[in-house]
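Give me structure tokens for this 130-residue protein.
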Amino acid sequence: MNMLFTWDTTNLCIVFRQWRVSSTLTLILSLLGVILLTAGYEFVREMSRRYETSSAEYVNKLPRKNVGDAEKRQKMVKAVLYAVQVFYSFFIMLLFMTYNGWVMLSVAVGAFVGYLAFGDSSSTKSVACH
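Here you go.
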């Protein structure tokens, strides 16, 4: 694996041994896949935010005696959603760490597309891995 920045796509391996670029067509399909994967991350983040908002409203409407169980379930679902986000963000980091300029640009384009499509509820964005 090349550990230096490059624009070369000759025999480019993306994350998995089986995900190898061997032609112009596989390069284009791979870059589109990276864009979709990265845009999907924004979808997961937005769904997590929406779940937090709706579950908080739901818990606030419950009688006091039922709040404890609902909060436990809510915390479990939020933990699962958080774990999915962390896993997803580290996968995107691995994509970026191919050090290939085309893949890096595709990650940025995917983040742009994902924000346009799904970034409705938050005006502040973090560039952290998760």
